[in-house]
């Protein structure tokens, strides 16, 4: 594959803006596409995304536009940084002006509602099977945009594409690893948002650090179980796009899913939280996907099930804690364990 000189970033939210700044800082020519013309004009003039990434400024290598044809012109790599529910539509818009030979990269952590497919599959379905890669990991936009040290993963089934993406994104403050397990990288980045909602609920309820640590550990186990059932490699879930992203999403002040879970634990309703949050809380949609995929594959995902029931089934977070604690006793490693229920006296 040829060396990359121009990148189009589709989606001017916090993550899209941070990635545009990252790539522009490497001397690449970057077009940042914003859907709304007035927002694009404001961003181009102020050189600051005051709505989604305040205090971080665009460098000279980034040009903002609301015209997707202009953003895609001569682009060799097209980076999709849009919410999961908008991926298919944006890919359709891009497909009408797709640059010949361009590589598509998903920077979105989520599964398509209804079909429950991964974002790379959506891109392949819509764009006619171009080379597709994925970037994921413990990478909050607020820190990547400011140039704080971080590590991430680029995934592609073709080694040459993975190495190319590694070269594009890597710089002094961002260490980039490759991984051929595209399914595992995408599923890890998606499912961790559901566990972060549970961890946030535990915080909101004041359950303490022990409970939160247990939720992270058991949540990671069920993420890996489902991933393996869907064709991913178990080891991927113990890497940056699994464990790494899970830790930061469950602990960071920047995590929307953690904050939403905390508000649930404090008694606010899901509808109220969603209405009051300007950015997408991907874990809410992914909770539906996790529940559906667990049923389809017959994989036990008790933490994800409780999150789904709190969001959509009328279960209170406190009742959810009881549902988890009163499950039959089991062996941690998945072997044969006791089936007795814990004593209540």
Helices and strands in order:
Blueprint: E1 6-10, H1 14-24, E2 29-33, H2 37-46, E3 48-49, E4 53-57, E5 62-65, H3 68-72, E6 77-80, H4 87-95, E7 103-106, H5 119-127, E8 132-136, H6 141-144, E9 150-155, H7 159-169, E10 174-179, H8 182-205, H9 209-229, H10 240-251, H11 256-265, H12 270-275, H13 282-297, H14 302-312, H15 317-325
Parallel strand pairs: 1-2, 1-6, 2-5, 6-7, 7-8, 9-10
Antiparallel strand pairs: 3-4, 8-9
Helix pairs in contact: 4-5, 8-9, 8-10, 8-11, 8-13, 8-14, 13-14, 14-15
Fold and architecture overview:
By secondary structure, the protein is α/β, with parallel strands linked by helices. The chain is 49% helix and 13% strand. The protein contains 15 helices and 10 strands. The strands form 2 sheets. It has an 8-stranded mixed β-sheet with strand order 5-2-1-6-7-8-9-10, with helices on both faces. A two-stranded antiparallel ribbon has the order 3-4. Helix 8 runs antiparallel to helix 9 and helix 13 crosses helix 14. The protein is globular and about 60 Å long. It starts with 5 loop residues before the first strand and ends in a 20-residue tail after the last helix. The C terminus is likely disordered.
């Amino acid at each position: 594959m040829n060396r990359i000189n121009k990148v189009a970033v589709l989606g001017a939210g916090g993550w899209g803006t941070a990635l545009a700044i990252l790539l522009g800082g490497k001397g690449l020519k970057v077009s940042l596409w914003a859907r709304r013309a007035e927002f694009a004009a404001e961003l181009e003039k102020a050189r600051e995304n005051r709505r989604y990434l305040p205090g971080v400024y665009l460098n000279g290598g980034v040009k903002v536009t609301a015209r997707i044809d202009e953003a895609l012109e001569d682009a060799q790599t097209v980076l999709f940084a849009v919410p999961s529910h908008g991926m298919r539509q944006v890919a359709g818009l891009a497909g009408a002006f797709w640059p010949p030979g361009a590589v598509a990269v998903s920077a979105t952590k989520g599964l398509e509602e209804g079909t429950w497919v991964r974002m790379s599959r959506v891109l392949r379905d819509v764009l006619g099977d171009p080379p597709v890669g994925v970037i994921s990991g413990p990478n909050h936009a607020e820190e990547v945009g400011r140039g704080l040290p971080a590590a991430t993963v680029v995934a592609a089934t073709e080694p040459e594409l993975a190495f190319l993406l590694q070269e594009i994104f890597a710089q002094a403050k961002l260490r980039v690893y490759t991984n051929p397990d595209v399914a595992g990288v995408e599923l890890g980045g998606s499912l961790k948002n559901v566990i972060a909602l549970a961890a946030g609920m535990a915080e909101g309820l004041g359950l303490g650090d022990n409970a939160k640590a247990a939720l992270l550990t058991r949540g990671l186990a069920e993420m890996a179980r489902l991933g393996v059932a869907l064709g991913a490699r178990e080891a991927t879930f113990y890497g940056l796009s699994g464990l790494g992203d899970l830790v930061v999403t469950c602990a960071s002040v920047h995590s929307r899913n953690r904050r939403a879970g905390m508000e649930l634990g404090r008694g606010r309703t899901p509808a109220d939280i969603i209405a009051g949050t300007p950015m997408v809380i991907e874990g809410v949609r992914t909770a539906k996907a996790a529940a559906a995929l667990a049923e389809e594959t017959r994989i036990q995902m008790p933490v994800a099930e409780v999150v789904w029931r709190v969001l959509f089934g009328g279960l209170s977070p406190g009742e959810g804690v009881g549902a988890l604690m009163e499950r039959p006793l089991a062996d941690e490693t998945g072997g044969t364990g006791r089936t007795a229920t814990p004593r209540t006296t």
